[in-house]
């Protein structure tokens, strides 16, 4: 009888609770396969940085002549197109340093005289272009929120279709600050909005005409970034 009982257990396995799996003919269970891992650097802000942006720009230029006759300030303002290109590299976790080329243009801006009266500058164009160094910091290298600062050199232009090519073109330093969010659309590509404010205390000096030219640009970009 004892031999018969042992034979039955050997054939059908142990009694409940008698032995762990793997004994008396039970095969051990295979562990589940590991979850697939993303390639190194995927969905992470590191390495080479390339950004292209296009959006709406609002420009304002406050002009204060000083020579040959000093006069009260007047201004031009209007909405138009903003374009941007940035190239750089990640020098610390989440921190990008590089160079930027940014341009803004507004057609037929509004002219406001020292008395506050306004009119449209027909067939006129106002531009602001800059070459700058930028730093951009991501709060989390694997996420999208960031802040940005720029420092560079700018040239502005205000002209009419009949203007002479030999016209004053104000130049000077440019400062900018911005921020936005990048949404991943690939392992290294992201898209998202970016808001930036830039200001340049420019000056002009041409053929005896001198003065200050305060240029401000507020731009809402749609950006595409490889990082």
Helix and strand content put the structural class at mainly beta
User: How many β-strand runs?
Assistant: 11
Low-confidence stretches: none
Give the % helix: under 10%
| Shape, per Cα inertia axes | elongated
Helix segment tally:
1
The whole-number mean of residue pLDDT values reads 88
Run of helices and strands: HEEEEEEEEEEE
What does this structure look like?
With 227 residues, the chain is mainly β. It is built from one helix and eleven strands, in the order αβββββββββββ. Strands 1-2-3-6-7-8-10-11 form an eight-stranded antiparallel β-barrel.
Secondary structure layout plus pairing:
Layout (H helix, E strand, L loop, with lengths): L1 H11 L35 E20 L6 E19 L2 E13 L2 E3 L5 E3 L3 E15 L6 E16 L10 E11 L1 E2 L4 E18 L2 E18 L1
Antiparallel strand pairs: 1-2, 1-11, 2-3, 2-4, 3-6, 4-5, 6-7, 7-8, 8-10, 9-10, 10-11
In short:
This protein is mainly beta. Helix content is 5%, strand content 61%.
Which descriptors would you attach to this protein?
mainly beta; 1 helix; 227 residues; 11 strands; 5% helix
